[in-house]
Amino acid sequence: LVYARLGMESSIWVPIVERMGRSCDLLDHVLRMAAHDRITVPALRALETLSVNVSVLDLADLGLPERAERVLGRACPPERWVLEITETAEVDKLADALDVLIRLRLKGFGLAADDFGSGSSTLARLREYPFTSLKADRRFVRTEHHDNEHAENMLRAAVDLGAALGLRVVAEGVETEDELVLARDVGCDL
């Protein structure tokens, strides 16, 4: 939603913002916009949950859990928000990241491993971090770029892994009926 409002492709400018050390400023702006939009847009108020992307770099900010609760809590309780952890950069301080994620979960926020299967996602992070869902990268769903069997095998592996870890599995980037059928057939939750 925020990316659409800014009219930009996130894969281009988010890494630039991260390299400049300004991801915290961007996140604060996004949190305020998301809360505002959830309050003012009836369709967003009606959603069970709404997601906000959080750079893995922001997990070094020990004040994030309280700030997220304060800002997003104006619109609705933390249980109705999912913070999607994007891994466009490496984690410098694993202990700080784990501390922040645990405190976010204790406050009630859902946590998603975003774009799983791309970037620097690791199986160890799925075990170490208190995620509630796994978002399978859209490349696992695309049937026009791969043969259907390959796409199905990749997505099924993500679903099996998520199920084994007790995570809700979301198929990202579903745009066609064939892709929706594939996601349903392999057991994606959403």
Descriptive report:
Helix content is 49%, strand content 14%. The chain is α/β, with parallel strands linked by helices and 190 residues long. Helix 3 runs parallel beside helix 5 and helix 5 (64-72) packs parallel to helix 6 (94-106). Residues 1-5 have low confidence and may be disordered.
Largest sheet: 5 strands, parallel
Approximate shape: globular
The total count of helices amounts to 9
Mean pLDDT: 85
Total beta strand runs: 5
Side by side, the strands of the main sheet go: 1-2-3-4-5
- Helical/strand content category: alpha/beta
User: For the CA atoms, what is the radius of gyration?
Assistant: 16 Å
The percentage helix is 40-55%
For the record, give the distance between the C-alpha atoms at the N and C termini, rounded to a whole number. 18 Å
Q: What percentage of the residues does DSSP assign to strands (E)?
A: 5-15%
Which segments are poorly predicted (pLDDT under 50) over 5 or more consecutive residues?
1-5
Topology pattern, helix = H, strand = E = HHHHEHEHEHEHEH
